[in-house]
Amino acid sequence: MSNQNKKIQGYFWSLEDDSEVSSSPASNDQFSLESLINQLDSRQKDAVTFPDLPLLVMGCPGTGKTFTLAARIAYRILSQKLQPSEVLVFTANRQGVFQIRNFLSKYLSQDIVESLAIYTFYEFCFSILQKELPSFPNLIAKEEVVRLFRKEHKELFSNYSLAQMEDILEKIWKYKRNLDFPEDILDSEDQKIYQAYQDMMDSYHLFDLEDLMLWTVHLLESSAVVQQKYLAIFHSIYVDEYQDINFAQYRLIRLLAPNEKTDLTVFGDPDQSICQFMGADIRYFLLFDQDYAHAKSIYLNENYRLSQEFKDLGQIILGRSMPISEQEPEISPFQDCWRFESSPNEAYSFLLFSIESILKGNHPFLERSLEKGDSTVGILFPSHWNARPLEKLLVQRKIPFSKQEKRILAKPEERLFLNFLRFLVNPENPYDLRSIVAAWFPRLQADLEKSPQNSFQVQEYISWLDQLFSPDEKTLFERHYSGLLSLSEKSSQLSLEEILGELARLFPNLLSLEKLLAWIPPDFHKKKIKDFLYWLLLQSPLDFGSFPSQRVQLLHYEGGKGMEFDFLFLLDWEHQLYLEEPEDQTDSCLPENQEERARLIYTLVSRARTALCLIRSPLPIHQSSPNLDEGEGRIRHLDSLFKPITFRASSKKKGMEYEQKDLF
Question: pTM score > 0.85 for this model?
Answer without folding.
Answer: yes
